[in-house]
From TrEMBL:
This is NAD-dependent dehydratase. It comes from Acetobacter cerevisiae. Residues 66-354 form the PRISE-like Rossmann-fold domain. Pfam families: PRISE.
Amino acid sequence: MSRIALVVGATGIVGQNLSARLVADGWVVYGLARRPRTESAGVLPVAADLLNPEALSAALAGLRPTHVFFCSWLRHATEAENCRVNSAMVRNLFHALPAPDAVEHAALTTGLKHYLGPFEAYASGTPPQTPFREDMPRLPLENFYYDQEDALYEAAQQHGFSWSVHRPHTVIGYAVGNAMNMGSTLAVYASLCKETGRPFVFPGSPMQWHGLTDLTDARQLARHLVWASTSAAGRNEAFNIVNGDVIRWKWLWPQLAAWFGLEAAPYPEEASPLTPKLAQDGELWASLSKKHGLREPDITHLASAWHTDADLGRPVECVTDMTKSRLAGFTDYCATPTAFFDLFTRMRAERLIP
């Protein structure tokens, strides 16, 4: 029988790359989003708001997915509201499916805030012990990832399907208009530095500059999602998913600079966040786009400085253990510099950066 996927959040950085992978593998793929893209080859668009149960039911009428991939979330002002809204989105989806008992497996993508805490308490208090492992206990804090997980577990128990939870670190990959996109943000920052002669300064904390960390290529995450959803070893388990290498930003930063024909500026030994810098560059980016014939003049559709500042500004090291996935049979690997270079190459080819 054909495998039929419902990718929830199909326009995001995870959903876009996952959908492309599933289509390439021969799946029937439905992509759900509030404003689905129609240009994604092979993806059948489903327009729906997860917070509108009646409209969601109407949009899903007739769909019988064998696999559900939940890659969506909405950010709110407080973590209490994040918990309420994002768990409701998961519950609403499974309630709206016309035949939830036909689902074989459902996969949920969350992230390392499972170990670090939510944005409003990000890595505060006692630093979590690294490397992060899946059997570490939940933090004694409100965290919408926990509420999403609990909603998934409830639906799986009710309808008899297996589940998996996937915890990537910062995801690097192609997506336009995504709210959390470090790779695209750094590409915009580097392009502006190249255009203006500004120094290409690492914007993050001394800990991130000097310490060890890791990242997740969106294509690596897509492979992991497909693996867990189709392998007996992936059923009813939570997994970390990173590229498999570890880096120091002070090692990687000069390589990113060189790709753009820049010299990496000396690190000032303190954070210099991107948010106030890029907030002033809207008109400059529009002018640069016109000069070079780029197709996205709105800097906010490419750069999410707040998210990049949050990740690169952490005062704690972030190293993620992949032993559980390796022992279960997932052995794929991606070199982190390649994740960035492939993204930059595609953005240039599609006239998103000069």
